[in-house]
Amino acid sequence: MSGTESIKIVPVILSGGTGSRLWPVSRASFPKQLWPLLSENSMLQDTALRAIGSIFTDPIIICNNDHRFLIAEQLREIGIEKARIVLEPLGRNSAPAIAAASLLIAEENPNHILWVMAADAVVEETERLIQFVEEAANLAQQGKILTFGIQPTSPETGYGYIEKGNKLQEAEHAFFVQAFIEKPDYQRASQMLEAGQYLWNSGMFVFSAQTMLQEMQKYTPELLNLVQVAVQKRQTDLYFERFQLEDFVKIPDISIDYAIAEKTDVMLVIAADLTWSDIGSWNGLWAISKKDSVGNVAIGNVFLENTRNSYIRSEEMVAAVNGLDDIVVVVTKDAVLVTDRRKSQDVKKIVDKLSLAKQKEAFLHTRCYRPWGFYETLASGHRFQVKQLVVNEGAQLSLQKHYHRSEHWVVVSGVAEVTRGDEVLLVKENESVYLPVGTLHRLTNPGRIPLVVIEIQSGSYLNEDDIIRVEDNYNRLD
């Protein structure tokens, strides 16, 4: 990469989506980018690992406030300790997120180059991708904004497209942008594939902070001013940078394509011949997954007979499929999806119906992650609920109380240090402790292995908002 050595490429990972087309695995409480759908790593982890090397700084992750501890833990698992994790109190699409990242980087050096990418895309040829990024970064130093177009291999209706214009003579893979095209129908997508001048819109961008801010000042100054206020008034919360709701709610909800890409005259597209997918549907996941001899992807406790070209996934229970082709069956602990594989883009419509019906399964998993570990609902009924708590080594729940429920804790494995009022108790395996309504209490794992506790709740109101936190290591007193 040419230019002065002080110019670095800053990876900016946008992790704000819910991936509802991959329901019931992907939900708002635990979206697709945090799942290991194709490798041992989550999609977020694989995305972050692509940007490791001497030309890159530590990444910036812009994410939903509710996912902050999960994301921080996943980054630590792959050795990324110094990421800047920036929290949005609510989603406002890609343009505000990119404006915020540009302003944050400009505080350090407006000439630094940003590489913006979604947390939920798959790219198989990482080394070749980096070559494209370096080519784009050289052009970004000259005041250009680069987007990445992927050479299409099929008439895909789930992606937007970019029409290539004339080739930029001084670059190997860069073209002027003729037009951005919305997601087409199948006939139009087939025509564009045959024409050869159209690329899938990957949503990746490379630019300098200075160039992006100049273009935003020109084309969307109101948005930039509002984001600037949010950036200036941000607060540090542990190792997170947090925007305030009262500032962020005023910002328009708009994508970078509409705000800048379709308007600016400094936009170029890198035509990248990469194996890429944003895994926007179960069909998309099936297409890039390893299949058996008859085209099936089977994950989990799955048994198939006379079934072809299908995606079958089950978390725990047995899933048996007989005599069906081109289908998707996904079984989780609390939901089952069955759909025509070729119509899996429409799963979002099902999620919308579940949301309107106020079904918690639309957005919540039975397992909920917390900074100290996770809990999982095992059973519930009238005036009772049973959960499994798994507390990480050295972790500690908040000092809290409840107005409407009592709790009974049974230690399954590990050793629990329990604060109950003025007492501090050491509770070992197969021992238990009772916590009456209104009692101040706390659970700590002082040991070197995960602490597993069965929590039996009893009372007139058992929702999570009946938690009054008095002290908390993770600043969750609100």
TrEMBL record:
InterPro entries, per database record: GMPP_N, Man1P_GuaTrfase/Man6P_Isoase, Man6P_isomerase-2_C, ManC/GMP-like_b-helix, Mannose-6P_isomerase_type2, NTP_transferase_dom, Nucleotide-diphossugar_trans, RmlC-like_jellyroll
EC number: 2.7.7.13
The organism's taxonomic lineage, starting at the top: Bacteria, Pseudomonadati, Pseudomonadota, Alphaproteobacteria, Acetobacterales
Gene3D superfamilies: Jelly Rolls (2.60.120.10), Spore Coat Polysaccharide Biosynthesis Protein SpsA, Chain A (3.90.550.10)
MannoseP isomerase/GMP-like beta-helix domain location: 306-354
Pfam families per the UniProt record, alphabetical: ManC_GMP_beta-helix, MannoseP_isomer, NTP_transferase
Domain Nucleotidyl transferase: 11-292
Keywords: GTP-binding, Isomerase, Nucleotide-binding, Nucleotidyltransferase, Transferase
Gene source species: Commensalibacter intestini A911
PANTHER family assigned to the protein according to its UniProt record, in alphabetical order: MANNOSE-1-PHOSPHATE GUANYLYLTRANSFERASE
Molecular function terms, GO-annotated: GTP binding; isomerase activity; mannose-1-phosphate guanylyltransferase (GTP) activity
Residues annotated as domain Mannose-6-phosphate isomerase type II C-terminal: 359-472
Keyword GTP-binding attached: yes
GO BP annotations listed: GDP-mannose biosynthetic process; polysaccharide biosynthetic process
Name of this protein: mannose-1-phosphate guanylyltransferase
